[in-house]
Amino acid sequence: MDAPWLVVGLGNPGTRYAGNRHNVGAMVVAELTRQASSTLRQHKKAQAWAAEVRLGTGPGGVPGPRAVVAQPSTYMNVSGGPVAGLAAFYKVPLEQVVVVHDELDIDFGTVRLKRGGGEGGHNGLRSITQSLGSKDYLRVRLGIGRPPGRQDPADYVLSDFPARERVDVELLVGDGADAVLDLVQHGLEATQQRYHSR
């Protein structure tokens, strides 16, 4: 049987962090779970909340690819253990591991995709690279923009999106979820062409 995809949305656990910019990846996984009419549950082997779903629908209404959507139940900077644990449990090959995360160096509201590359100071990605032993997993990068003025980037990512950006955040989360669906159904290059030409 073909291996499922693994889609992990990064964030910090608990209500205190739920609305943070740093949690926008987790918001996308919550949206994918909602679209699949499923519920994230504590995984029995990995430190994560996870659900086995079908992502979207294919031609003729056929259910989309099998996937495990997940959020680590650990803090962001130790996301690697949960991701590696889920990948091992479900026998997901590296090329089908998708990490959805916030990105300071992309304009707010923009979605970009790539395979591999550096971590750009993102401790969640650094942890995942160490635990998987490779950088060559897929990334869906959600632009949150740079902090204004001299605000510390660490304070910026751990602050909530302001009320005036709420509608734009909903659009970003929706676009992020759509990008994941496109990625698993149509591949990286086709999805990059769609989102990077906007």
From TrEMBL:
Asked if the record carries the keyword Cytoplasm, the reply is yes
Q: Which residues bind tRNA?
A: 17, 75, 77, 123
Q: Where is this site: Stabilizes the basic form of H active site to accept a proton?
A: 102
Q: Where is this gene product found?
A: Cytoplasm
Site (Discriminates between blocked and unblocked aminoacyl-tRNA): which residue positions? Answer: 12
EC number(s) given by UniProt: 3.1.1.29
Alphabetically ordered keywords of this record: Cytoplasm, Hydrolase, RNA-binding, tRNA-binding
What is any Pfam family matched here? Pept_tRNA_hydro
Could you tell me what reaction this enzyme catalyses?
Answer: an N-acyl-L-alpha-aminoacyl-tRNA + H2O = an N-acyl-L-amino acid + a tRNA + H(+)
Please name the GO terms that the record assigns under molecular function: hydrolase activity
The keyword Cytoplasm is assigned to this record: yes
- What role is this protein assigned? Catalyzes the release of premature peptidyl moieties from peptidyl-tRNA molecules trapped in stalled 50S ribosomal subunits, and thus maintains levels of free tRNAs and 50S ribosomes.
Subunit structure of this chain's protein: Monomer.
Instruction: Please state which protein family the record places this protein in.
Output: Belongs to the PTH family.
* Entry protein name: Peptidyl-tRNA hydrolase
**Lineage of the species this protein comes from:** Bacteria, Bacillati, Actinomycetota, Actinomycetes, Micrococcales
Gene symbol here is: pth
